[in-house]
Amino acid sequence: MTVNDAVAKRITKLLDEKKMTQYKLEQKSGIVHGSMQCIMNGRNKTVTLTTIIMLAKGFDMTPAEFIDDELFSAANFDIE
Predict the structure, then answer these.
(1) Phi and psi for 77 in degrees, rounded to 5?
(2) 3, 18, 52, 78: which has the highest count of C-beta atoms within 10 A?
(3) Which residues contact 40 (CB under 8 A, 6 or more apart)?
(4) Do the domain assignments include residue 56?
(5) pLDDT tens readout for residues 20-69
(6) How far apart are CA 77 and CA 80, in angstroms?
(7) Do the domain assignments include residue 79?
């Protein structure tokens, strides 16, 4: 799994948990629709720390809370 895959899965999970739409997340986080689509569709290969911070803000959480999930365990990543 790539970091982008983990971020997309985490977004999907949090949207469901918080009963939030992707549109609402885009509005709250400041991430434009096209960029969000690239993350969600796997076209974005590198998610930056800035993006993680913006996503966390959109979910009303800290960046640490956003990545505090088993998806981000080092064992899950294809590290070369």
Answers:
(1) -100, 145
(2) 3
(3) 8, 11, 12, 22
(4) yes
(5) 999 999 999 999 999 999 999 989 888 999 999 999 999 999 999 999 99
(6) 9
(7) no
pLDDT beyond 90 at 74: no
Q: State the total domains in the chain.
A: 1
d(C-alpha 14, C-alpha 28), whole Å: 14
Q: What is the CATH number of the domain that holds 65?
A: 1.10.260.40
Q: What is the pTM of this model?
A: 0.90
Distance CA 55, CA 69 (A): 15
Its domain, for residue 57, covers 3-71
CA 22 to each of CA 36, 40, 78: distance values in angstroms, whole numbers, following the listed order: 8, 10, 27
The confidence score (pLDDT) of residue 80 equals 61
Flag whether pLDDT at 13 surpasses 80. Answer: yes
